[in-house]
Amino acid sequence: MYVCVCKAITDHQIREAAQNGALTLDDLRRDLGIASECGNCAAYARQLLEETIENQCKAAWDSD
Ligand code: FES
Question: Is residue 8 within 6 Å of ligand 1 at its C-beta?
Fold first, then answer.
């Protein structure tokens, strides 16, 4: 699903960026161009980023 229409960035690309180390919206902006034009995608992109990071932490915690 497209999250950022201006840059044609999908939720999958955002999750992948998070898995590769993106921690902030600025990281997504730098790596993917998220929220670099109209900005309408910023809130949902940040939510996806936070969910992905949280899931990664839970998975790491559960694997110990
Ligand atoms: S929808 Fe992402 S910058 Fe416009």
Answer: no
pLDDT-based confidence at residue 28 (cuts at 50, 70, 90): very high
Q: Which CATH number characterizes residue 26's domain?
A: 1.10.10.1100
How far apart CA 54 and CA 64 sit, in angstroms, is 16
**Cα dihedral sign for 16, 60, 23, 30?**
negative
Atom in ligand 1 nearest the alpha carbon of residue 37: 3
Give me the number of domains the chain comprises: 1
